[in-house]
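Re: duplicated header lines in exported C-alpha cells

Our pipeline writes sequence and C-alpha cells for each protein into one text file. With two proteins the header for the second block appears twice in some exports. Here is an export where it did not happen, for reference. First protein block:
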Amino acid sequence: MGLAVLKSSVSFTLHIRCVNCLRESIKALEVPLVDDAPLDPDELMESAYLDGVRYHCQQCQGTAGQIFGMSGGVR
C-alpha cells in the first residue's frame, strides 16, 4: 500500500519588469491551498492575493514593478 502526498500549496512564477530601470526578473510565489485559492494564472490575477506580494528591484532598488507574464498553477 502506497502513501499519497497531498500538496499544500500552488506554485506560480511571476515575470516582473521594474517600472524604473525596465529590468526583468522572476519571483516564485507559493499560494496556500485553501478554499477559494487561485488554481491558475487567470484566477490569481483576478484574486486579491497579489495585493500582498511585495517587489524590490535588485538593480535599482525600485519598489514598483509590472507583471508581464505568469506561469504555474494546477493543470
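Second protein block, exported in the same file:
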Amino acid sequence: GQDFDDPASGFKPSLSWTAGRLTDAQPPHSQAEMLMLCSCPEFRQIFRTLFSKLDKWHFYSEEEKSECGKLQNDSLGLVWFGVLQCPGWQDCPGGDHPQYISSTSLQKGEPLFTCASPFASFSSHIFMNTFSKGIVSNLAGEDNAMILTDARCLPGTEGGGVYIKSKDLYYLAGLIVAPLCWKANEWIGLTLVCSVGSIIKNIGRFLKVFDYSGKRMLPFWTVPDYLTIPGRHRLTQLLSTVALLESGRVWGSGVIISPKLILTCRHVLNGESTVKVKIHPDSNRCLVLKGRVLFATKDNSAYDVAVVELEEGLSAVETITAASEFNTGEDVYIVGYGVFGQRCSVSVTSGVVSAVVTADSQPVMLQTTCAVHAGASGGPIFRKNSGELLGIVSSNARNNTVGASYPHLNFSIPITVLQPLLSVYTQSRDISVFETLNTANDRLHALWRLQGRLSSLQKSKL
C-alpha cells in the first residue's frame, strides 16, 4: 500500500486501491451504514441559478419517476450527499486512501474520466466500475462547486467518481449528481457533477476532521495544483474569441475574427440590425459592446451566416488561424454559450469530425459528434491539436415526428466557405462580396434542407 502521509500520491479508481494502481481484487459485499446526510450550499446556490424552473428542467427518465415517486421529482434533492460506512471492509487488503484535486485548479477542456456502475443492481458483475471519458465542459459556482462534463454517463452512475488523470494515476475531482439532463424535454447530453472538495468541506462543518488521537477521520488529501495534465492551457486563449450575442430575448454565439468583426448565424440576430455583444477577455472581465449587422444571408439562402461589426474595436484579439482542410475522425472542440447563455460562462464540448460533406469537390458542411445545444449557434469548431478554426455551428438534428433533438449530430459551415470572402472584404471594405452566399446552386440548397431547421436553436430563450 501507499504511504498515507504522502499527499502527492494518487490512485486508480476501483473498489480497491493499492499503491495507486488498478487491481482486480475487490472487497466482499458488505452492508453499509448511513452515518450522515449533508447538503452542499455552494452547489445548491449555483444549481438554482442555472437550472430555472421556467426552463422545465428534469433529471430523471419517466421510468425512474414512476419507480421512485415524488423524491425524484424534487430536484433540490440533488444537492444532498450521503456518508456511508462499510464495517465489513475494515480488514480487507488494499484500501489505500484516495487523493482529490481541488476543482478551483480545473480548467475547461481538460480530459476527465468517470468510474461508476450503471445498472449494477441488475448485473453487478457486468456493469461494476465501468469507465467513460469526456472533458471539463464548464465550471460554475463558488470554488467551482459545479462541474459539467460531456462524458457519457448512464442511469445508476449517480454518486460515481469523476477523475483527473496525471502520469497514469487518477485523482478524484467530483461525484456524479445527474447523468441525464433534460431541458423542456430536450436531452442536453451533459453530466452534472459536484466538486468533491465542496462536499468534503461541508462534511467537515459537521464532523471534526481529526479525532482526539489525531487520526484523520476524513481519509482524503488534496493534491497540489502542479499536476501534469495533458491538454491543459490549450483552450484558454481560444475561449476569449467566443462572444455572446443577444437580440431581444434571442441569444446565440459568435467567433471574433478581427478587432471589429464577428462571425455568427443569421437566425441569432432575430431580424435585428443591431445586437448586444458580451465578450470575456479573461475570467475576471466582461465587456458589453454594441454590434451592427454588416451582412446577413437571406432566409432562403443555403447558408445561415451573418457578419457583425463592433462599434468599438477591441484593443487585443487572439489571432485565429483558419483551417484549409478537414479530416474525418479528427478531434475537435465546439465552444459556445449553449444551454445557459448569460447565466454561465462559455461551454466547451469535445468530439470528432464525423463527416465532411462536399459539393463540386468543395466542403460545404461539417458534421461532428460534439454535444451542441440551443444557444451554441454561431460558435466555433476548433481543431484540438492546433487550435485552427474549422467552421461555425449552424444547428443540430431534430426529429420533428417525436420532437426529439440529437445534440451529438450537428451541422456546421466550413470556414473555407467564408474565409476567401472575409479576406476580400478586409482589403476592399465592399460588403457586396458576401452576396455570393445568397447565390448557392440547387444541390447545395438540397443538402442543407435535408437537415431542416431547429426551432430550439433559432429561438433560444434567455
